[in-house]
């Protein structure tokens, strides 16, 4: 059993920063992908993980907002 809950608390904090009132309709896959990108960074992910994340974002419906 871990002697500290700091790593779990950091993940919950990251999740709360990503899933705000303006972004409360994120799917589980999208939230997981965002958390992986924020936590690990692009360089730390394997090519397979990066490809899966890219596919998740490709499948998202188009938005009416111009970025």
Binned strand content: under 5%
| Total beta strand runs | 0
State the low-pLDDT regions, or none: none
Judged by helices, strands and strand pairing, the structural class is mainly alpha
Organism: Dreissena polymorpha
Domain HAT C-terminal dimerisation: 1-37
Protein name: HAT C-terminal dimerisation domain-containing protein
InterPro entries: HATC_C_dom, RNaseH-like_sf
Q: Summary?
A:
The protein is mainly alpha-helical. Helix content is 57%, strand content 0%.
What features would you describe in this structure?
- This protein is mainly α and 67 residues long.
- It has 3 helices and no strands.
- Helix 2 (28-40) packs across helix 3 (47-58).
- The longest helix has 13 residues, at 6-18.
- The protein is flat.
- The termini are far apart.
- This is HAT C-terminal dimerisation domain-containing protein.
- One of its GO terms (molecular function) is protein dimerization activity.
- Residues 1-37 form the HAT C-terminal dimerisation domain.
Task: Provide the fold topology.
Layout: H1 6-18, H2 28-40, H3 47-58
Helix pairs in contact: 1-2, 2-3
GO molecular function: protein dimerization activity
Domain HAT C-terminal dimerisation: 1-37
Organism: Dreissena polymorpha (Zebra mussel)
Properties at a glance:
single chain; 67 residues; mainly alpha; 57% helix; 0% strand
